[in-house]
Specification:
The complex is a heterodimer of chains A (about 450) and B (about 475). By secondary structure, chain A is mainly alpha-helical. Chain A has two domains: about 375 residues, no CATH class; about 50 residues, no CATH class. Chain A contains 20 helices and two strands. In chain A, helix 1 runs antiparallel to helix 2. Chain B is an all-alpha fold. Chain B has three domains: about 130 residues, no CATH class; about 90 residues; about 220 residues, no CATH class. Helix content of chain B is about 75%, strand content about 0%. Chain B has 20 helices and three strands. Chain B has a three-stranded mixed β-sheet with strand order 1-2-3, with no helix packed on it. In chain B, helix 11 runs antiparallel to helix 15. The chains are: A mainly alpha (about 450), B mainly alpha (about 475).
C-alpha cells in the first residue's frame, strides 16, 4: 500500500511531464484550461499522497526516516554498479516536499492568469512541470543518483525559463550563463557521487550517514574521502544557491516571467543548495574544516548580498539579493550545526519571498493604494540612507555594490578571457595549418571560376 | 558460431551495393532518391532481421548460410558478434534517415550512388573481424569522401594527408606487427598502429582534416561518415588485441584530451558544421575512454554510449541539417531566431542534443554515469575529464539551441516550416532515445555481454600470440 502512495507522490509529476512532452512532441494543440487544470490536479494528487505519509509521521512524531526503494534502474553485480530509484521520507524531506507542492500549486494558479494568451503558455507549463518533477525527485531523494536526476531537471528548466522571453537577446544570454554555472555545479555533484561510490560502494544517504536518521546521524566515511566529497558537495551547492562567487547569475535570472522567478529564485531552486548541505550534514559533522568552509561561504555571501542589494534600483533585483542574504544566513546556520533552525528558516523564507515576488509587478499600485489608505504619500526611506553616503569609504562601498561586487569582472578576467584566448588561439592555429595544407585559396573550383568571371565582368 | 537461417548480412551489404552501382552508372532523375531509400530500407530490415535472429538464438558469433557453398574459407571474413550485431542495424537506420530526410531542393547535390556504395563499405566493415580485411576495407571506404570532395571542386590535400596518412600507418603498422612481432620493427608497428587509429578517429592532434572534411562535404554525407565511427571500430578490432598496455594508455589519454578539447572548442566555434564536428570529436573521445578502460564496466559503458549517444548525436545533426537546408550555412556568431518558423525542429534539436550528453530520461543517462564511474576507478583524472567534457558539451548544445532558435525574430516572406517527414523522422529517433531510457538494464546487460566477448577474444589472442611468437605485450595483459 505504502509503495503505491510513494509511487503516486513521485509518479504524478513524472507522468504529467511525460504526457505534456508527448503531446508537444506529436504537435497536438493544448488548450490553456487543460494545462491549468491538469497541472493543479496533478499537484493535488501528489500532495494528497504525500500528506498520507506526512500526517502519521507528524502525529506519531516519528521523523527518523524511511527509505523506499521504488525500483532498480540498473543492477550490474559483476561491475559493482547499481542505480536505484530511492526516496527518503524523513524530517528534512517531507517538509521540503510539502513546501514544494504548496508553492508549485500556488504558482500554477497564479501563472494561469498572469500568462493568459502569452505565446509561450504551453512552453511555460511544460518547463514548470519539469521543474516540479525535478524538485520533487531532488527533495525526496534517498540516494545521490536520484538527487542528481532531479537536480539536472531543475537546472534545465531554470535556464530555459530564464530565456522564456526568447525574442530578446538579454534573457537568452542570461539563460545560457545560468546553464553554464549550473552545469559546473552538476559536474561537481556527479564527481562527488562517483567519489562516494568509489569509497563506500553506495550512493544512499542512509548508508553514508549511519542509521540514526537526519539530523542525528553521524558520518561513516574515511576522513579524506569525507573532505573530498564534502568540498565537491559544497561547490555544487554554491553553484545552485548562487553563493559567492557564483552570485552574479541570480539577478540575471530575474529576466524570466515573474511566476518562475518567484518559485525558482525566491522560493525553491535557490534553497536547493542549502537543502543539499542539510542532507549531507553528517559529512559536515565529520569534519571541522568543511563546517568552517560552509560558515565562511555563508558569511561572505550574506555580506556581499547585503551590500549589493542596498543599491539595486529595480524591485526584482532587490528581492533577489534579499533572498541571497537569507540563503547566506541559512548556510551559516547549517555550518554552525543549527539544522532545524536552518530548515525552518528555509520554509519561512521561501513562503515570504514567493509572496513578495508575486506582488512585485504591482508594487507601484500597492504603494498608491497604501498612500490612499494612509491619506499621505508613503515615505521612501532610501533617500535618508542616500544622504548619509558621503564618506570616501562609503562611496567605495556604493560603487562596489553598484558593480555587483565586480564578480563578473573577476570571472571574466580570471577564467573566461584566458580560456577564450587559448581556444581562439587553437582555432587560429588549426586554420593556419589547414590553409598551409590546402593552399591559400580553398574555395571550390566552381566558385573560383565564378569569382574569376565576376572579376572579368567588372 | 551459428549460421543464420537467412542471408541477412549479404542482403544488408549487397542491397545498397547493387543500388549504388546502378545509380552511379545510370541517370535516373527523380527516381534516384526513391531507389536509394528503398534499397536502404531493405538493407535496414535485413540488419534488423539479423539482429533479431542473433538475439533470439542467443548467439556469440553468426554468419550467413550462403557462404557454405560460396567459399568455406571466407567464413571469418563476414560475420557478426555481440558487439557488431546492433550496430549493423543502427548504421543502416542512420543511412535511411539521412537519405530519407534529404529535402527535394537539395536532391541534385546529393551523390546518392556514392553514398550507397560508402554505406555498403561501412556495413561490410561492421561484419568483418579479420584485421587484414579491416585495414583493406577502411581504405576502400576512403575513396567515397575523396570522390565527393573532387566532385564539389575542393582540394583534397588535407583529407589525403590525414585520412590517407592514417590508413597507410594502419597498414604498415599491421604488416610490421604480423611479419616481425617480436623485433624492434614489431614495436615500431605498434606505434604506427596507434598513430593510425588516432588519425582515423580524428583525435588530437590529427583532427584538422576531419573538421575540414565536415566543412566541405555535404552535411548528410558528413553525418553518415562521422556516425559510422570507423576509427573507434578499428580501435576495438585492431587496437584492443594488438596494442600493448602503453599503447592503450596513450590512446585513452589522447581520447580524454580530445573529448575535453572538442567540447571546449565547440564553445567558441561560430560555424555550425565545424561546431558539430567538434562535438563528434568529443563524442569519439568519450567512447574511446570507455573502450580503452579495459574493464568490463568501462567497455560496456563505451559500447552503450556507442548506441545511445551516437543515435542522439545523429538526430541532433539531422535537425541542424534540416535547418541548414532552409537558411543556408548556419552560423552561431549571432542570434538567428528561427524558433517562430521551426518550433518543432527547435524542440527536437534541444532534446536530441541533451540526449547526447546523457540528460536524465534519455538512453545515455546511465551509460555516461557508468563511464564516469569506471573512468574514475581507472584513473581519477580520466574520470574528471569525462565529467568535464560532458559538462562543456552540454553548454555547447544549449548555446547552439539559443543562438539558432532564439534571441531574435527572423523575418521571411516564404514558408520555411518543417515537413512532416522531418518532424516524424527525428521524432522517431527521440522515441528510441527516450524509450531506451526505460530499459537501461537490458541495454547495459547486452553491451556488457559484448564487452565480455571482446575482452575474452582479446585475452585469447594474447595467449595465442604468447604461445606462437612470444608475447608482444611485454608489459602484461589487460585484465577485466
Amino acid at each position: 500500500m505504502i509503495d503505491v502512495v510513494v509511487l503516486t507522490v513521485v509518479g504524478a509529476p513524472t507522468l504529467w511531464l511525460g504526457l505534456l512532452g508527448l503531446l508537444l512532441l506529436v504537435g497536438c494543440p493544448i488548450r490553456e484550461s487543460f494545462l491549468a487544470h491538469g497541472t493543479r490536479l496533478a499537484i493535488l494528487i501528489s500532495l494528497g499522497a504525500l500528506l498520507t505519509i506526512a500526517v502519521p509521521m507528524f502525529l506519531l512524531a516519528d521523523w527518523s526516516g524511511k527509505l523506499y526503494r521504488v525500483g532498480e534502474i540498473v543492477n550490474l553485480p559483476a561491475s559493482n554498479f547499481h542505480l536505484r530509484l530511492e526516496f527518503m521520507f524523513d524530517g528534512l524531506s517531507v517538509p521540503m516536499a510539502i513546501l514544494t507542492h504548496l508553492l508549485c500549486g500556488t504558482i500554477a494558479a497564479f501563472a494561469t492568469n498572469y500568462l493568459h494568451k502569452e505565446i509561450g503558455f504551453q512552453r511555460f507549463f511544460l518547463l514548470f512541470a519539469m521543474f516540479w518533477t525535478g524538485m520533487t525527485l531532488a527533495v525526496l531523494a534517498g540516494s545521490i543518483e536520484t538527487l542528481f536526476l532531479g537536480w539536472e531537471l531543475v537546472g534545465l528548466s531554470s535556464a530555459l525559463l530564464v530565456a522564456f522571453f526568447q525574442d530578446r537577446v538579454g534573457p537568452v544570454a542570461n539563460g545560457l550563463r545560468i546553464w553554464s554555472i549550473y552545469r559546473c555545479s552538476d559536474a561537481a555533484l556527479l564527481l562527488a557521487a562517483v567519489l562516494l561510490h568509489h569509497a563506500a560502494g553506495e550512493g544512499e544517504f542512509s548508508e553514508l550517514s549511519g542509521r540514526a536518521g537526519w539530523p542525528h546521524s553521524s558520518g561513516a566515511l574515511p576522513a579524506d574521502v569525507a573532505i573530498g566529497a564534502g568540498l565537491l558537495f559544497i561547490l555544487a551547492a554554491a553553484g545552485k544557491s548562487a553563493l559567492w562567487p557564483f552570485s552574479s547569475w541570480l539577478p540575471r535570472a530575474m529576466e524570466g516571467p515573474t511566476p518562475s522567478s518567484a518559485v525558482f529564485y525566491g522560493a525553491l531552486s535557490i534553497h536547493l543548495g542549502a537543502f543539499l548541505l542539510l542532507r549531507i550534514s553528517p559529512l559536515l559533522d565529520q569534519s571541522q574544516l568543511l563546517s568552517m568552509v560552509v560558515v565562511g561561504l555563508g558569511l561572505v555571501t550574506t555580506l556581499y548580498a547585503v551590500v549589493v542589494g542596498r543599491v539595486q534600483t529595480d524591485v526584482k533585483s532587490g528581492l533577489a539579493f534579499a533572498s541571497l542574504t537569507q540563503v547566506g544566513l541559512i548556510v551559516v546556520e547549517i555550518g554552525l550545526g543549527f539544522r532545524y533552525l536552518a530548515l525552518l528558516h528555509i520554509l519561512g523564507h521561501a513562503s515570504l519571498r514567493t509572496l513578495q515576488l508575486l506582488r512585485a509587478p504591482s508594487l507601484l499600485r500597492d504603494y498608491v493604494e497604501l498612500g490612499n489608505a494612509l491619506g499621505a504619500q508613503v515615505n521612501n526611506r532610501l533617500g535618508k540612507d542616500g544622504r548619509k553616503a558621503n564618506g570616501r569609504w562609503f562611496v567605495w562601498i556604493y560603487r562596489f555594490g553598484l558593480e555587483r561586487g565586480y564578480i563578473d569582472v573577476l570571472w571574466a578576467t580570471v577564467v573566461l578571457r584566458p580560456l577564450s584566448s587559448v581556444l581562439r588561439c587553437c582555432r587560429l592555429l588549426e586554420s593556419e595549418w589547414l590553409l598551409r595544407l590546402n593552399g591559400s585559396d580553398d574555395t571550390p573550383t566552381k566558385a573560383r571560376q565564378n569569382s574569376h568571371g565576376l572579376d572579368q565582368w567588372q | 558460431m551459428i549460421e543464420f537461417q537467412f542471408p541477412w548480412l549479404l542482403l544488408s551489404i549487397g542491397l545498397p551495393l547493387l543500388a549504388g552501382i546502378f545509380l552511379t552508372t545510370s541517370r535516373m532523375g527523380f527516381a534516384t532518391k526513391i531507389i536509394a531509400v528503398t534499397s536502404l530500407m531493405l538493407g535496414f530490415f535485413a540488419g534488423l532481421g539479423g539482429w533479431c535472429e542473433f538475439s533470439w538464438r542467443q548467439a556469440d558469433v553468426a554468419h550467413d548460410p550462403v557462404y557454405g557453398w560460396l567459399a568455406a574459407r571466407y567464413f571469418p571474413v563476414l560475420q557478426i558478434d555481440r558487439f557488431s550485431s546492433p550496430l549493423l542495424m543502427l548504421q543502416a537506420g542512420f543511412a535511411l534517415l539521412t537519405v530519407g530526410l534529404t529535402m527535394r531542393t537539395k536532391g541534385k547535390r546529393v551523390p546518392y550512388g556514392e553514398l550507397l556504395l560508402s554505406q555498403s563499405a561501412v556495413q561490410c566493415l561492421y561484419c568483418c573481424t579479420d584485421p587484414m580485411w579491416l585495414v583493406i576495407l577502411s581504405g576502400v571506404h576512403l575513396i567515397f569522401p575523396w570522390l565527393e570532395l573532387k566532385q564539389r571542386g575542393y582540394r583534397t590535400r588535407s583529407f589525403l594527408v590525414q585520412a590517407g596518412g592514417a590508413w597507410v600507418l594502419l597498414g604498415v603498422g599491421y604488416l610490421l606487427l604480423r611479419l616481425a612481432p617480436e623485433t624492434m620493427l614489431g614495436h615500431l608497428g605498434q606505434a604506427f598502429l596507434l598513430l593510425g587509429i588516432v588519425g582515423r578517429c580524428g583525435l588530437l592532434p590529427f583532427h584538422c582534416g576531419t573538421i575540414d572534411l565536415f566543412n566541405k562535404l555535404g552535411f548528410g554525407t558528413a553525418i553518415l561518415g562521422g556516425s559510422a565511427l570507423l576509427g573507434p571500430l578499428l580501435a576495438v578490432r585492431l587496437g584492443l588485441p594488438l596494442l600493448p598496455n602503453w599503447g592503450i594508455t596513450a590512446l585513452a589519454t589522447v581520447a580524454v584530451a580530445s573529448a575535453i578539447y572538442g567540447a571546449a572548442m565547440a564553445l567558441v566555434e561560430a560555424e555550425v558544421r565545424r561546431l558539430y564536428c567538434y562535438l563528434f570529436m568529443s563524442h569519439t573521445g568519450l567512447l574511446l575512454v570507455g573502450l580503452e578502460a579495459m574493464t568490463l564496466a568501462g567497455l560496456g559503458a563505451g559500447l552503450a554510449l556507442w548506441l545511445g549517444s551516437t543515435t542522439a548525436l545523429v538526430a541532433f545533426g539531422l535537425t541542424l541539417r534540416s535547418v541548414e537546408a532552409r537558411f543556408g550555412r548556419l552560423s552561431v556568431a549571432k542570434f538567428q531566431g528561427y524558433y517562430e518558423h521551426l518550433p518543432r525542429l527547435a524542440g527536437l534539436g534541444l532534446v536530441t542534443g541533451l540526449a547526447w550528453i546523457g540528460f536524465p530520461g534519455t538512453v545515455s543517462f546511465v551509460a555516461i554515469e557508468l563511464l564516469a564511474d569506471s573512468a574514475f576507478h581507472q584513473n581519477r583524472l580520466a574520470g574528471f575529464g569525462v565529467v568535464t567534457a560532458a559538462a562543456l558539451s552540454s553548454i555547447a548544445v544549449l548555446r547552439v539551441y539559443f543562438r539558432l532558435f532564439t534571441g531574435h525574430r527572423h523575418r521571411t516572406n516564404v514558408s520555411v516550416r518543417s515537413t512532416w517527414v522531418e518532424d516524424w523522422g527525428i521524432s522517431l529517433l527521440i522515441v528510441v532515445l527516450v524509450g531506451g531510457s526505460l530499459v537501461p538494464q537490458t541495454l547495459l546487460v547486452s553491451r556488457l555481454g559484448a564487452a565480455e566477448q571482446l575482452l575474452s577474444n582479446q585475452s585469447n589472442q594474447s595467449i595465442e600470440s604468447n604461445g606462437s611468437n612470444g608475447s608482444h605485450k611485454s608489459d602484461g595483459t589487460h585484465g577485466s
